Amino acid sequence: MTSPAVSSRDLPHPTREEIRLEGVLHALSDPMRMRIVRELAAVGDELSCSHFDLPVTKSTTTHHFRVLRESGVLQQVYRGTAKMNGLRKDDLDGLFPGLLDCLLDAAGRQAARLDGA
Predict the structure, then answer these.
(1) CATH, range 16-104
(2) Boundaries of each HTH arsR-type domain copy (predicted)?
């Protein structure tokens, strides 16, 4: 059986079995990447890269999305000309039950504490 041709617009993602805890924690250790993940979690659906208004350059934004994708935190797919991003919540919850929710809760508490300071 032959696999279908891979499009130049297909983006590499780790399989669920390839996702490593240290890679996920590294990806989520950056405030901009955590901000992306928090926003995706709050919406609960896919968002395009252009939806995010981050206070960094476009190339840095691209780097953050790549780190999140390559660590297994995000799934990125092209829909037309838009690159759509979605959390791999089911994969992360299956591998590390409660981790994502705990980190998102802690990040929310920290943001509220820092906004109040």
Answers:
(1) 1.10.10.10
(2) 13-107
